[in-house]
Amino acid sequence: MVMPTYNEAENLPKMVAALLSLKAGELEIVVVDDNSPDGTGDIADQLSRQYPSKLHIIHRERKLGLGTAYVAGFRLALEKGADYVIEMDADFSHSPSYIPMLLAAVKECDVVVGSRYVPGGGVRGSWGAWRRFLSWAGNLYARLATGLKVRDTTGGFKCFHKEVLQNLDLARIGSGGYAFQIEMAYLCQMEGYEVREVPIIFEDRAAGSSKMSLGIVWEAIWRVPQLRFKYR
Question: What is the pLDDT, as a whole number, of residue 218?
Fold first, then answer.
């Protein structure tokens, strides 16, 4: 389990407790914290002392972006001997209750995406019309620009077979924000991995503020069309 964190002090203890309460095999958690000003890193250290065999912490000097956080977390998870690696948010927008479903589904494919845009999936909470349109349009744009088959191109709730992450050239991935999810999906498709989507309901974050910014949106707009040339 890989979770990047930035200012998630309110959510992290509850999320760790929820994850460790699951009956999901030998689940271990990698937290990648980008020197959160609210003390998330210190809380992560306290939790790791409480659960030394279950919780592993990567501290980074500053906010370096979602993409590089996930890559760092993937590498540590593989070093720790993970058979499957799940990526998810720490703010409860991805419910831990879906994890058994992801682990069951990945046994029949290579990558599983917890998807908002397949039948049964959706969004619950205070998303306004503009945010819903932006998410829908962003997914459509990514699919048209790259030929992606996956419908939730920016979905950040995924489960990978370890062989997928071992075989992908993670050092080549350059996206920092949510474009990272699109680039990973594109790379998996280009390498011929079977990607399956299972429905989830995406929730509003439990506490704290969204990390979405104009810069993240802009990165996705200009970077996505370049993927066809980068990986041809």
Answer: 57
Per-residue burial over 50-88, b = 16 or more CB atoms within 10 Å of its CB, e = otherwise? eeeebbbbbebeebbbbbbbbbbbbbbbbeeebebbbbb
Q: Measure Cα distances from 105 to 60, 81, 145, 159, 186 in Å.
A: 33, 20, 28, 9, 20
Instruction: Give the CB-side neighbour count of residue 149, counting CA atoms within 13 A.
Output: 10
Bridge pairing between strands 29-33 and 2-5: parallel
Q: How many structural domains compose the chain?
A: 1
The upper half-sphere exposure of residue 225, i.e. CA atoms within 13 Å in the direction of its Cβ, equals: 4
State both tokens at 18: 């929820």
At 49, which CATH number?
3.90.550.10
**3-state DSSP assignment of residue 80:** coil
Q: Which domain holds residue 169?
A: 2-230
Chunk the chain into consecutive blocks of 10 residues (it has 232) and report each block's average pLDDT, rounded to whole numbers: 96 96 86 97 97 96 91 97 96 95 96 96 80 81 90 94 96 81 93 97 68 54 68 67
Show the tokens assigned to 214. Answer: 């104009």
